[in-house]
Design goal:
Blueprint: H1 3-50, H2 63-95, H3 102-124, H4 141-160, H5 169-194, H6 202-234, H7 241-254, H8 270-282, H9 284-298, H10 304-307, H11 309-331, H12 334-340, H13 344-374, H14 381-413, H15 420-426, H16 428-457
Helix pairs in contact: 1-2, 1-3, 1-13, 1-16, 2-3, 2-4, 2-5, 2-6, 2-13, 3-4, 4-5, 5-6, 6-11, 6-13, 7-9, 9-11, 11-13, 11-14, 13-14, 14-15, 14-16
Length: 481
């Protein structure tokens, strides 16, 4: 590559990052606020499971309100805000065109956060809809939908203006997520909140939405980031474009049928439940293709995990995606479901997907994106390590503790001679491990928040000796820009 072409490419990337600075920065910055708020609410809810007297006199912090506020603050405040920012930046970079409507996107970020603020406030004052993943009261939804309309239009505008050339798999995933989420949310909110359908139809719609919010929104953005960042950091193309295409289309086809396996044994048509079970098992196809693609791309380059915190977070998330997806497919099998259903095992599984996969990949992506937006380096390697290790260890304790405790709980619940209170008391040690895990993850989140604020406040340019967000310079390091 000649020097003139290198200079032109660098100038192009700088222009793209400057245009993305405000909209992407506001979405990502606000996501960290919701991450910290959601973490505190999570601790309150977790502690209440083994210590019901904790903040017992305040109705705003009952378990039902704290847990629902936590779930929605993390889903729409942290993950969705971060996902929008990451997705817009990826699209702009891959389309090789700057964001034009950055003012309207910045305004949409304000609307999005106002909707989340109103929604969390509504839940904690007692206005929750009591529909899982849709607990925000009806008056919060218009702000979210209006905001996302701007985001989707901006994404289409980027694709319309894209530079000639190859369409990357990350673009497929980002655009799919930006299309799927408003469709999912508008449909489920309309049928369950605005004009509720008959009661027997509500659980299938609720589970369809809850499952697909993870599989057709957080998963596409997470996989888009992984497909972009892993090759970018190690300086090697993705192993197989054809495998990535198989993974995308099989995800799009099979995941839309998921959710109903959580209603096995319920008063629903057998064909609906069976179709969902089959689709869940067929998810082995996209999961295995993505796992092979990521592993073969990383093969021979695992030493980069020592040097790049971005890669460390992303690879951890990619491995969690494989594990949680395989686990989810096995949980849809009836002989397994009859043990794991209605237990803490399901809670551990859900958190491995939402946190171990999506959140960890988003952390890694933010560590990569922010130095390019602000033209300044993260201020402390120590804070980055303090973020990664407590979070990684915390989610491991969370997942293992609830998986073991939930499995034993399910076996005991299936015994007719086991007193119910004894079964509940036997889960307390595992619930305490959940609180310990939550404290560890909150420590990591606080380190992340401090690091982010410190980065905003100081202005020191990244140097070519380390490259943005590298602990040290790896041998034969990739272009850091």
């Amino acid at each position: 590559m000649n020097p003139e072409h290198i200079a032109r490419s660098r100038s192009e990337r700088l222009a793209i990052d400057r245009a993305a600075r405000w909209p992407v920065g506001v979405f990502i910055g606000s996501s960290i606020f919701w991450l910290l708020a959601g973490s505190l609410l999570a601790l309150v809810a977790s502690i209440k499971l083994h210590d019901p007297e904790f903040i017992a006199d305040n109705p705003w912090f009952t378990f039902g309100r704290a847990r629902s506020a936590h779930l929605n603050a993390m889903a729409y405040g942290w993950l969705s805000s971060a996902g929008i920012g990451i997705g817009l930046w990826l699209l702009s970079r891959l389309c090789r065109v700057p964001i034009e409507d950055h003012r309207s996107l910045t305004l949409s970020a304000v609307f999005w956060n106002f909707g989340n603020l109103v929604g969390v406030w509504g839940i904690m004052r007692g206005d929750s809809t009591s529909i899982e993943w849709l607990e925000y009261p009806a008056y919060a939804a218009p702000f979210l939908l209006a905001s996302f309309a701007f985001v989707t239009l901006a994404a289409f505008n980027l694709v319309r203006r894209r530079a000639p050339g190859h369409i990357y798999i990350s673009q497929w995933y980002v655009m799919a997520g930006f299309i799927w989420l408003p469709m999912l949310y508008f449909t489920a909110h309309g049928l369950l909140v605005l004009a509720p359908v008959q009661a027997p139809a509500q659980p299938p719609i609720n589970w369809w939405y809850a499952h697909n919010a993870l599989g057709l929104w957080f998963t596409p953005i997470g996989l888009a980031a992984a497909y972009y960042l892993i090759p970018k950091i190690i300086g090697k193309p993705i192993h197989s474009y054809y495998l990535s295409a198989i993974g995308f289309w099989s995800l799009a086809f099979f995941y839309a049928w998921n959710g109903m396996h959580h209603l096995i044994g319920g008063p629903f048509p057998a064909f609906m439940v069976t179709a969902s079970v089959v689709a869940s098992v067929m998810m082995f196809i996209p999961v295995i293709t993505v796992a092979i693609n990521h592993h073969m791309t990383m093969k021979g380059h695992f030493r980069y995990l020592i040097h790049s915190p971005t890669l460390r977070f992303v690879v951890f998330g990619a491995m969690s995606y494989t594990l949680v997806s395989i686990q989810g497919s096995t949980m849809a099998i009836r002989v397994v479901n009859e043990i794991t259903h209605f237990t803490h095992y399901t809670v551990g599984h859900a958190h491995l997907g939402v946190y171990g996969f999506a959140s960890m990949v988003f952390f890694g992506a933010i560590y990569y994106i922010m130095p390019r937006l602000l033209a300044t380096e993260w201020p402390s390697r120590w804070l980055i390590r303090l973020h990664f290790w407590p979070c990684a260890i915390g989610i491991a304790i969370y997942f293992i503790g609830l998986s073991v405790g939930g499995w034993l709980q399910g076996l005991a619940l299936n015994r007719t001679d086991a007193p119910f209170m004894e079964i509940m008391e036997a889960t307390i040690p595992y619930l305490k491990s959940r609180s310990i895990a939550g404290i560890l993850m909150t420590i990591g989140h606080l380190a992340f928040g401090v690091s982010f604020i410190w980065m905003i406040l100081r202005r020191r340019a990244a140097t070519s000796e380390t490259g943005p967000t590298l602990f040290s310079l790896p041998p034969q390091s990739a272009d850091s820009t």
